[in-house]
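Hi R.,

As promised, here are both runs. First protein below:
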Amino acid sequence: MKKRLMAMLLCVAMTAAMVVGCGGSGGSSDSGDGDAKEESSEGGAASDLNVGVFYYTYSDTYIASVRTALDGKLEEKGITYQDYDANNNQTTQNEQIDTAIQTGANLLIVNIVTSGSVDASTQIIDKAKAADIPVIFFNRAVEDDDTEGQVLGSYEKCAFVGTDAPEAGHMQGAMIGDYLVENYDKVDLNKDGKISYAMFMGQLGNAEAIYRTQYAVEDANAKLKENEKPELVFFDESNTDKYQVDQDGAWSAAAANNYMTTNLSQYNEGNNNMIELIICNNDGMAEGAIAALNDKGYNLGEGKTIPVFGVDATDAAKQLIGDGKMVGTIKQDADGMADCIAALTQNAADGKGLMDGTDSYNKSDKVANKIYIPYGTYTGEE
């Protein structure tokens, strides 16, 4: 009896040893807020890091691209991480951060919900300070022009990886202006000597949305004026804002599709007041607008096409451009952003400062720990 019992115990011990030897640190799943990912590390430093990655929403197409890229890069480095979806709710994100810290997160990577809000970003900084852990903000601004450096300068263990917000607007405006100078008569469908445009804004108060809305039109008009052509005219004279905004702040295809479907019921070739140009703050909204045009027989890849411009250079937008249904977009480099975030994360894993070895990146002239990933134009050629 004793011999059989000893044999059983020995078998159990050997099985346990095999599991520990093969498994590393096992993955777990957060039932509602997050998606846990853990990989065994090649180095000791990476295995000590427990990262919480907080996204403002999984549903944003560009953010989904960043998430896919960043997941892959963290896994390559053997860094334990857990993704969280705030579903566009700042309170939810704050609670997720609290939970992550309580359960052992020692680095926060945050795509903040309330873009440009010092109050919201300061709350997150305070949480990181209290836990004495670094925080990397990315993509969505944590300050506005008037408060630049106030948040990022308040904590030595924080950094920001994003874009120079006005750059996309300027680049999109130049692209639109150049296109219209070359194709003005073709775009002017009703031959009234002016071009009627629609503008779809992603989110009120968002720095990127504000600058894209402003400069896309201003810079296009500057090009037109230089070439002695009339400036753009917003299609709805009663709309003094000169944009239609996603009221949910989600930059969604659905919002643009709903707006454009309604617009086309009144503004169309039959009424001789067709919208002749569509400018979108992101490619998701461009997709929605194009779908509405498709329903009316436009932008099918041949025949009548209303020029549509976006921002992000998502795979879907590239396909639409390749199919002749969309003119161009501004590339927001998801892979480049993920690369930079991963490099800062590796610094934390190695016990270095977040900004160590980052001299090759574009940085803000005003804020030393703010890194800009450059934009690029995309019209079908890489």
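And here is the second one, sequence first, then its structure tokens:
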Amino acid sequence: MLFSDKTQNNIMVDLIESVDGDISTEEGTLIDHSFRGAAAEFERAYIGLGQIDKNGYAQTADREHLMMRAKERGIEPFQASNAVWKARFNVEIPLNSRFSSKELTYACIAKIGDKVYKLMCEQAGISGNTKKGELMPLGYIDGFEFGELMELLEPARDEEGTEAFRARYFSIVAAAQAFDGNRAQYKQAMYGMAGVGACKIYRVTQGERRIKIYFLDNGYQVPKAALVAEIQEKMDPVGKQGEGEGEAAFFHIVDICPCISEAVDIETEITIDTGYTWEGLLPSIQGKIDDYYLELSKGWENEDFITVRILKINAAIASVEGVIDVQNTSLNGKEENLFLPQNAIPVRGKVICRHH
């Protein structure tokens, strides 16, 4: 770290060395007292200078200063978004009516079918991506008997973390060199579209004369067909591909493709602590596995393919309170790491405990 050697003691040594040899600088002398106070002030000044230096570079800046630097280029952290669900009811409901499901609340924003509506979770962040239970109206609705969330249409995301924002900042800065039709231009275009969380771009080859772009939604999940169609329309509209009608360069034919998901079945032997049961532990174990899979999906863009590791699965299960030991774990029937296809992300399949 810059100025790390500028401590009070080191500064004292430098100050004392500057004094003529015939002047006493022993502890307790006037010189000693005055130098110690000055050295303490100098140390604080150097600490401040070190912070200024650190926050002058995007690579080392804290969140506040990174945001200030990025804002000069019109870049800001993604804010937490709100999940949108398809929901059905036994009766027609008014727009803007509100519902609760455990700790979450939802507002009706659009009608999309017979007794089927779009509901937006009023709490921003990924907590809204999980179905909590039945919907209960927060106001009177004549004839209401039941309501349920059917399908997550638009997954929410949490506020962008500092390191993810830093990486995106550098990616955008690098993409400033983008020109029509190069890889940086397509990546920049993809990240400028709502709903895109990660993407991979495959160049034209001898065997495949079309540019392929695979992507995940902003929840790092397999995107819905409607989102794929929307991105295709913006990038290179079907029926007009190669004509430069979208973001794609003239003569470039671009196909927008969703990633696929691969279910991973887990069988393992778990030793359970006294007072716990497999049935009681299963939801927490499933949650930890889902967290690991999400971590893998977030890294998909920078990997040739995803590897699901038994060691990580065991660690995820063992982190659950009530689990004493985990061993003899298999993934899709084999006691070895699982290598997924090139553009596949893992999703939880069956979780089976052989003996407990």
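A quick note on the second one: Helices lie at 8-17, 30-54, 63-71, 162-175, 183-191, 225-235, 278-298, 310-318. Let me know what you think.

Best,
J.
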